[in-house]
User: What shape does this take?
Amino acid sequence: MGTVSRGVRNAFRNVIRTGSIVFILAISIAMALVMLLALKSVQAKIASVKSSVGNTITVAPAGVRGFEGGGDLLTTTDLNAVGALPHVSKMTETLSDRLTPGTDTNLQASLTPGSFGNRQQGRAGFGVEGGGGRFGAAQRTFTMPIMVTGVDDLSVAQALNIDNLKITSGSEFDATKDTGSALVGTDLAAKNNLKPGSTFQGYGTNITVAGIYDSGNRFLNSSFVMPISSLERLSNQAGQVSTAIVQVDSIDNLNSVKDAIASKLGNKADVTTSQEQTDQIIQPLENIKTISLYSLIGALVAGSVIIFLTMLMVVRERRKEIGVLKAIGASNIKITAQFVVEALSLTVMAGVLGTVVGFFAANPILNALVVSGASSGQGGPGGGGFRGGGMMVRFAGGLNGVGNTLRDLHAVVGYDILTYGALAVLVIAVVGSAIPAFMISKVRPAEVMRND
Assistant: This one.
């Protein structure tokens, strides 16, 4: 007990030096803690991406992209065989359609065609409103259609790269039942004065607004979503599927399942994976992971060097004291233990202060790493390209996938992190005092007393 108490008291023999050392060492420990938190957060996010975003396969009718192209839609019979394949953990089906305001629905479109819409859709004669144009052809203007997507699982919107989708009022519908209800985008709802409980006309029947959603995207906010069974019934497309999102149990099985689906459906479907998108998301995370790892090592080394230089200086200052202790019978182990306790006392104080600093600094520093990692990655957030229908397909196809993933990166201090921090403090104290302790064993009382 005497050795421990002397070691603790010795840590405060020079208050100014102790305060300076504790402060500098605390910064090093805080940085090590922050980098450890960042490292664990990034590792967890990478694992999450690989198990969710990175393990999806999109199955679309061959030759069909939204409302462009040509061919036949897939059927539930086709996709039942896909859902039974090994390593397929989940499959979500979507059906897309569009309504013409004034014809199929009493809703007014919240989007205006603009030059792009008039050029693309006017040529097809969709919603033509007459007039003369170039080359003697009719000048075509049109009213924007209203996109509707049927889903059998709302997680297709909320789990696949669409973390910003929020229900702003009302509630979700049961996607597994033909409820005849819908979730309406904020822009479309505002244009038509809709709120939860309101009804609007579509396909010649009343559709009830279950809730209003905000996707953070103007195109999606001008559309609405309903149960796929309701859309099949109302649009006379029973058993038809525009797109299927297949989730695989592991990214390692992604390619084999893709090949199996392609073999099963043949030329009926175009099968693509999320591998490219996953790489875009993981690359900046790997950059952050590398920075965090090297910074963690650097912070631990810096802390060890600080305590090493401190104890080296202390041992040199107390050579006479060490010689006297040895002369009166103190063993090398006992004297070394006293200095180790002193080093541990300094490190523990710095550790407590560093933990507090690290707790508050973790997320700001992690945000700075996110900016650094994203800028050196694959170009940052990816914009989802939207043309025609297939709203939920685009949900799965990369709307702000990288940006959303990085924005969702947060450091969380748990008991495991505090345990690692305590171990780091112990390692810094022991390593930093090891060489000075060796020097203590070399001190000879006779030489010290003679040279004094």
Observations:
- Residues 62 and 266 are 9 Å apart (CA to CA).
- Residues 55-274 form one domain.
- The chain has two domains: 2-50+281-451, 55-274.
- The longest helix spans residues 332-375.
